[in-house]
Specification:
Number of domains: 1
Oligomer: single chain
Helix content: 55-70%
Distance between the termini: 20 Å
Shape: globular
Number of strands: 0
Order of helices and strands: HHHHH
Number of helices: 5
């Protein structure tokens, strides 16, 4: 279910390879953030239904874009609130 570099670059509308390392790191960070907000363990992540995985994928791409566009002044509390709203339907009550 991993978001690929090419997917993220298409979503960001980046055509050069100058920032591939940055975008790859943002994908890893975004995946962890989304997994934490949704309160999904690695096992739950792998066994989730397709509809849940689509929401998670969208949240990851959104997070990558947010972190990419706001590198210098990212408001992480606002990002977390937005992700909670995006993931409300799939978010677990606890780990």
């Amino acid at each position: 279910m991993e978001v690929t570099l090419d997917e993220a670059k298409t979503y960001l509308r980046v055509s050069s390879s100058d920032e591939d390392e940055l975008i790859t790191n943002l994908i890893a960070s975004a995946t962890g953030i989304v997994q934490d907000i949704a309160r999904f363990s690695d096992e739950e992540w792998e066994s989730s239904e397709e509809r849940t995985l689509i929401r998670m994928r969208i949240a990851i791409l959104y997070t990558v874009a947010y972190l990419y566009e706001h590198r210098e002044e990212a408001d992480h509390s606002q990002l977390n609130l937005t992700l909670r709203a995006l993931l409300f339907g799939v978010r677990k009550e606890g780990f």
